[in-house]
Structure to design on (900 residues):
């Protein structure tokens, strides 16, 4: 009985001619309206021309093509080429068909990438579909599957569900011919999943029936049942009713497998009757073994024999050399019917054939190879013709011989190709994920790059400042001091008139002022103490220098605020030098802002370290501001840049009349790496009061 | 009376020259040598055994603090006056710790310089006027432990809430902050009051009348 099952395979694929040839869609408006109208008119004329009158069709399309090229109407050109390729296929001119398809595609793909126009997408879909059909005819299932996956992508973007159903169905068929049943079932199910979104999709009956057949053949009856029900429902009314035979056949097989041959045979006979009415021999051929098997189970050997003989004649007509299954079954049946001589004859034929074909698997491969071989041969011949070479015949014979050698190679390639398929879908998905990942990575790298640029700029700035500060301090400062020494020594030695003496004294004062001003500038630029002793002493110096409280205690009447500094957990520690400089600058800038704007009477600068977490707070009791209005000033921006450098978080809290608190949190990285990493502190809700 | 032997150390030849011109006419001072680097200074000091060294803090090869320390270690009787433009407390204290007995700013007048040399030679200390101002300030490095710690506004709020017995989550809700931030404030408060737990913290804060 198992021998019959092997024939199931042939049936599934033959159930529908692979791939509906898609007719091109009409043009969208783009160039001058007059040209568009003419183009549309030509296309309409082409549509209306009798399918048999390919000459007229070609004429209209050539005109449309010429027009599109003249006015540089790319879509029109693509659509016309596409339609021309369709006409070429009607004339069985494979070569022109392929060439035109390719030309059209070269135009349409970039066009679609640029505009994503759904109509372009549809024409492109038609193009790819026809290419897939062509590849399949050539026996290049791999190429066909690739083209169809491409097609499906376009159709999904275009939202063309009707066509998508057909494409899924066809792709399932391709995988089925490749013995990749899982994949085949997957795509047929995809087609079925769309059934609520399409109205006119008769192939869904076939898809459901195919799935049911697969499950039945593998004894998974529970899984077969829902698909049978679907096929039944879909084929109960138009448009699915035209494939009612497929459903009946599937249901019959199911009954047979369930051990109900009576019902099974009845259903299979019905299916066969409907199929005969449709008149597709490949479908009839696919159904015959099932009916034969059913009758055999019921003991109706005469009917079994009749069906098997029909099978035999049909396979012969289809040019299929492999009749082993039929012959073996016939031998068995003749024996049952009491005709041992006939049985023996069939058995002998079976054995001869079997020996020559070795196995069914080899046979299908041979078929595939033969198709490929013929395709190649044909292409070769065409090339030779085109080149008008006299050695044509000889070349062909040579090619013939070479091909035998190529057989072994191709068998191996086929195996590899099969494996490649299993990975095909996975790979596409992986590729998509990888693309997303890559985009993300690029963004991260971009951010990283910006950060590095800022870092480099800040570092360069600091180095430059450090150098300048030293030059000022040591060079200019030293010279001014020396000048002052000289002048001071002169003072006691000469007697000057009153006015000149005053001038001299004022000059000395100014010189003094200049020296201390220079000292201040140099310290602001790069405090020596910071590099020498570290952040805390340097900040202490800085705060003390502007602390009016300190000034008052010394008797001077400075108008500035009281500045207090406190540090915890940092006394003995030196941070990475760049970090220290950045933090120092932050305090400088923040204090600058306070002095300039806040009119504060007290400022607190606080630096705390807890493990690797460092927090800087600068808080004043000044007039504050409305945070929403001040964002993004130059001062704030440079503060933000420095905080970014530390990969820290800046939190600014202020309100008019309420003072301002600036908090900066950041983390030190591991001691060996001087770079700093961001804190993971959750951003605070804006409680800016 | 033997003149005071003076060594000049400064990396600017011009400054060295100026100092020499100013000091040489004084009969009680004998400029025994000058050096532009730390290495030179050590060599000349060993060779000339000066009484007083006028030492610049910024030297190209070694900083003045270390030079001072080593000179004092080698010749304990040596008197070192820091001669610098750096009018900062951190330098001043460190130079003093390193054994310097004078601190003179470079914009000093010649007589101030002469006075400094004679004073330190006599075993006293000498500081420029501006430097003395710095010395008058309380040392902030030791101040915080003595006085009450200064609290930020947020820390005051959190301290009050802690005293009221609120949980971190409750505080977070009231202050519109994340509990994590509240934890940071709480930890900072413990650090500032040198407390191990909330009870000690409240006690310390109450003692300082902060709550």
């Amino acid at each position: 009985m198992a021998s019959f099952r092997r024939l199931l395979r042939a049936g599934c694929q033959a159930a529908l001619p692979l791939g509906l040839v898609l007719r091109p869609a009409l043009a969208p408006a783009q160039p001058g309206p007059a040209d568009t109208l003419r183009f549309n008119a030509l296309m309409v004329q082409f549509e209306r021309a009798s399918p048999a009158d390919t000459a007229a069709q070609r004429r209209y399309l050539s005109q449309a093509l010429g027009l599109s090229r003249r006015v540089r109407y790319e879509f029109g050109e693509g659509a016309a080429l596409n339609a021309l390729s369709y006409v070429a296929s009607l004339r069985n001119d494979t070569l022109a068909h392929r060439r035109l398809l390719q030309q059209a595609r070269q135009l349409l793909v970039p066009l679609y990438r640029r505009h994503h126009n759904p109509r372009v997408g549809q024409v492109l879909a038609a193009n790819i579909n026809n290419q897939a059909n062509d590849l399949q005819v050539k026996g290049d299932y791999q190429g066909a599957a690739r083209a169809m996956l491409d097609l499906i992508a376009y159709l999904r973007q275009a939202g063309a569900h009707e066509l998508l159903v057909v494409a899924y169905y066809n792709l399932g068929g391709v995988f089925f011919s490749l013995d990749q049943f899982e994949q085949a079932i997957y795509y047929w199910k995809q087609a079925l999943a769309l059934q609520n979104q399409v109205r006119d999709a008769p192939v869904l009956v076939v898809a459901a029936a195919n799935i049911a057949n697969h499950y039945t053949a593998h004894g998974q009856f529970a899984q077969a049942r829902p698909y049978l029900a679907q096929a039944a429902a879909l084929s109960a009314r138009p448009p699915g009713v035209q494939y009612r035979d497929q459903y009946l056949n599937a249901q019959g097989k199911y009954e047979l497998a369930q051990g109900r041959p009576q019902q099974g045979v009845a259903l299979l006979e019905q299916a066969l009757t409907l199929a005969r009415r449709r008149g597709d021999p490949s479908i009839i051929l696919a159904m015959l073994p099932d009916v034969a098997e059913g009758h055999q189970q019921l003991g109706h050997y005469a009917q079994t024999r009749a069906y098997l003989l029909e099978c035999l004649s049909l396979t012969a007509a289809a040019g299929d050399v492999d009749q082993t299954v039929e012959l073996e079954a016939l031998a068995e049946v003749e024996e049952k019917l009491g005709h041992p001589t006939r049985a023996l004859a069939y058995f002998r034929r079976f054995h001869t054939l079997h020996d020559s074909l070795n196995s069914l698997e080899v046979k299908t491969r041979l078929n595939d190879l033969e198709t490929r071989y013929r395709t190649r041969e044909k292409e070769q011949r065409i090339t030779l013709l085109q080149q008008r070479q006299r050695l044509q015949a000889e070349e062909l014979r040579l090619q013939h011989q070479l091909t035998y050698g190529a057989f072994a190679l191709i068998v191996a390639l086929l195996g590899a190709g099969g494996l490649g398929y299993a990975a095909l879908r996975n790979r596409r998905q992986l590729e998509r994920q990888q693309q997303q990942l890559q985009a993300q990575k690029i963004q991260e790298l971009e951010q990283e790059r910006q950060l590095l640029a800022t870092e480099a700029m800040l570092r360069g700035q600091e180095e430059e400042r450090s150098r300048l500060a030293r030059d000022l301090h040591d060079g200019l400062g030293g010279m001014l001091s020396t000048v002052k020494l000289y002048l001071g020594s002169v003072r006691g030695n000469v007697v000057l008139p009153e006015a000149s003496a005053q001038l001299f004294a004022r000059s000395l004062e100014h010189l003094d002022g200049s020296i201390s001003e220079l000292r201040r500038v140099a310290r602001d630029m790069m405090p020596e103490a910071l590099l020498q002793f570290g952040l805390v002493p340097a900040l202490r110096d800085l705060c003390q220098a502007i602390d009016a409280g300190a000034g008052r205690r010394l008797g001077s009447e400075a108008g500035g605020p009281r500045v207090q500094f406190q540090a915890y957990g940092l006394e003995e520690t030196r941070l990475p030098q760049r970090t220290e400089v950045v933090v120092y600058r932050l305090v400088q800038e923040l204090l600058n802002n306070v002095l300039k704007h806040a009119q504060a009477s007290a400022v607190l600068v606080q630096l705390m370290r807890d493990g690797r977490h460092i927090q800087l707070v600068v808080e004043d009791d000044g007039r504050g501001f409305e945070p929403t209005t001040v964002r993004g000033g130059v001062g704030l921006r440079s503060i933000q840049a420095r905080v970014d450098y530390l990969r820290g978080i800046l939190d600014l809290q202020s309100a008019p009349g309420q003072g301002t608190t600036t908090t900066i949190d950041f983390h030190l990285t591991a001691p060996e790496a001087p770079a700093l990493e961001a804190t993971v502190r959750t951003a605070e809700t804006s409680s800016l009061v | 009376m033997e003149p005071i032997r003076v060594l000049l150390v400064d990396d600017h030849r011009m400054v060295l020259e100026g100092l020499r011109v100013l000091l040489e006419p004084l009969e009680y001072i004998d400029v025994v040598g000058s050096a532009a680097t730390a290495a030179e200074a050590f060599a000349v000091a060993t060779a000339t055994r000066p009484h007083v060294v006028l030492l610049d803090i910024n030297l190209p090869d070694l900083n003045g603090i270390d030079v001072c320390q080593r000179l004092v270690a080698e010749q304990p009787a040596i008197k070192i006056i820091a001669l610098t433009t750096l009018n900062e407390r951190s330098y001043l204290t460190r130079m003093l710790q390193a054994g310097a007995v004078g601190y003179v700013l470079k914009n000093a007048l010649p007589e101030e310089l002469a006075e400094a040399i004679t004073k330190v030679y006599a075993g006293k200390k000498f500081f420029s006027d501006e430097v003395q101002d710095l010395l008058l300030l309380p040392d902030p490095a030791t101040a915080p432990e003595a006085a009450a710690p200064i609290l930020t506004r947020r820390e005051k709020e959190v301290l009050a809430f802690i005293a009221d017995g609120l949980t971190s989550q409750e505080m977070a809700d009231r202050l519109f902050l994340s509990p994590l931030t509240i934890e940071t404030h709480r930890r900072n408060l413990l650090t500032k009051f040198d407390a191990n737990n909330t009870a000690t913290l409240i006690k310390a804060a109450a003692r300082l009348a902060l709550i």
